[in-house]
């Protein structure tokens, strides 16, 4: 079970105010147009998942596919190989 230290939320729970968890975005670089963000995700369908465990920090690349028909803002689906130590 994962517990968020700053809010005492348990993994799987969503905070009432998601904006409180958002990273600051400088106005000159902020992008709110959904179609522009979706185009970027289609053009670059690879994510980097960074995790930290007892052995230290690791980064793994994950292929992603954007599905725009599943939800209002779209849904990203990815794949992690069974042999990946994540």
Describe the structure.
By secondary structure, the protein is an alpha+beta fold. It has one domain. 12% of the residues lie in helices and 28% in strands. The protein is built from 1 helix and 3 strands. The protein has a 3-stranded antiparallel sheet with strand order 1-2-3. The longest helix has 10 residues, at 34-43. The two termini are 15 Å apart. Residues 1-5 have low confidence and may be disordered.
What keyword list fits this structure?
disordered N terminus, alpha+beta, single chain, 86 residues, three-stranded antiparallel sheet
Helix and strand arrangement:
Blueprint: H1 34-43, E1 46-53, E2 56-67, E3 75-78
Antiparallel strand pairs: 1-2, 2-3
Looking across the biggest beta sheet, what order are the strands in?
1-2-3
Low-confidence stretches: 1-5
Termini Cα gap: 15 Å
Task: Using the CA coordinates, give the radius of gyration.
Answer: 16 Å
- In the residues, how many domains can be counted? 1
Q: Tally of extended strands?
A: 3
User: Could you state the order of secondary-structure elements as H and E?
Assistant: HEEE
State mean pLDDT (0 to 100 scale): 81
Q: How would a textbook summarize the main sheet?
A: 3 strands, antiparallel
**Classification by helices and strands:** alpha+beta
Identify the overall geometry: extended
| Continuous helix count | 1
Work out the helicity level.
10-25%
What fraction of the residues are assigned to beta strands by DSSP? 25-35%
Quick rundown:
It is built from one helix and three strands, in the order αβββ.
